[in-house]
Task: structure prediction
Amino acid sequence: MKTEMNIGFLPLVDACLPILAQEHGFAEEEGLTLRLVKDVSWATVLDRLLYGHSDAAHLVAPLAIATTLGRGRPAQPLSVPFVLGLNGNAITMRPEIAARVSPPGRLGDPAIVGAALAEVARQRIEAGKPLRFGVVHRYSSHNYMMRYWLAACGIRPDRDVEITTVPPPFCADALAAGEVDAICVGEPWNSVAVERGAGVIVLATAQIWRRGVEKVLALREPVLEQQRGSVEALIRALRKAGAHFVDPENWNANAAILARPQYLDGDARLIRRAISDRLLMARGQDTVHFADFMFQYREAANFPWVSQAQWFYTQMVRWDGIPFDPEEAQQAARVFRPDVYRSALAGTGEPLPGASSKVEGSLSGPLAVSMQQGDMTMTNNRFFDGLVFDPADLPGYLAKLP
Amino acid sequence: MRIAIVDESPARASVIQEGLAELDDCEIFVVSDRNGLLARITEIAPDIVLMDLGNPSRDVLEEYFAVSRVLDRPIAMFVDESDEESIAASVEAGVSAYVVDGLAANRIRPLLDLAVRRFRAFARLQSDLAEARGQLAEREAVDKAKRILMDSRGLPEPEAYGELRRTAMNQGRRIADIAEAVITAHELMGKT
Result:
């Protein structure tokens, strides 16, 4: 078993689990030493993974699928045996636009905010200055969540609004300079924009899809096979880090660790806010609490449901303008590896679902799930527009989307 | 051949530019400012873009290549998928290259090799410089500590230095560390 693993990451709060697994000795308990390799673009995180500088990486989930399918570069199969977290992003708008579309001091209803935004978008097109939104990467959940929301509100991305890529550290600048009217980014970058008065948080992506996959642990498929023992040890360490991360007792200490120069190199105060599901919507206000803003642990949040990969594939088809291909859909589905997650945690106290795929967005209340190991009740996992994603019929789902 | 070097470090960009200048038939453009990056690339219409791996704008550039119809030619990172070795070498050296499809591999290879060499040379220069800076700072600290000992204990210079060296040897530490300790103690006593 390889005992040292290099793990690539971008300085974002949701890189927390591998960092804390190393810092709190959970990796060591599993016989591993993790070396965290920081970069500033997903392109570089991915290059290091593909060329062997890192064994595994913190990655935006759709990029793992796009890389496997060979979108934008030669295809290289990646595998995802662990989801690093759900949601944790927000949509932040320039203050004058936020004032027109959202209620002051709280998160609005996504449908109502969207309806107001549709009017702003229409006026801006008439004025010859269409709205411009920034997302952190073309193949990011940010891009797909925001597009999902806009389209469901009657705002057609790429026609009614422009969507462009803005690296997280530049989001606040881009808002302040008016290069973009809104950004969808992870923490602490929304809060940085808010603190500077450059933006106002309008929505949390968790409001769009209550259980949307965000970052994943990605490896090259051959590396996963070669280092299977180490990967399973890493999964156990990350799960322990997750339990530690969500315990309020540890929030101060964990925020201080993540804020260190070698990790996020940021403000522990802002990081703690995200960890504790609190948002400062606008400068000078009190923070508001939004339950499950970040979702790293409960309800087997780290279990890589095949249906989640399939949902991303449908969104890729939807927005890349490439026709649905059953072969590609299969390849995309195979990126998520619940079998590896299961074998890593079999015999521990961790809950293991009996199924590998589920209907997404169908729960508005608690439901006890059938389990291979342990007990688990899943709660609200809805999309804001009430649509349900059935992985058994991808073309049928695509046909229902606006 | 039109080459764009995108690098937020103007120093490194010029080291690379200088290296590539020896190639025949190349026009080289340096882009150091991230503002207006895409407009500048459109204007340059390069055949090759070289960008350092530490540049946060890589995702922006890749997105532009993916959706842009401006150049009307698909751009891929590196010309030949089989050229794994030189790709690995460039990632190792810290440079990424985007090449317009259709450009002959025999024209790309020497250019990329050269860029990789220049990137490595720059990294070496930087570490030499950091080391030199470190040495200079240490020498200054030792001088300052010597003066403190000379002033406060009336020692002549050679003995002040001897005192520092003896203490360092006794404690198994470096003279520069002892000097730092002397300076810190002196400052704490309010005697700066």
Observations:
- The beta strands of chain B are 2-6, 27-31, 48-52, 75-77, 95-100.
- Residues 131-188 of chain B form a domain with the Arc Repressor Mutant, subunit A fold (CATH 1.10.10.10).
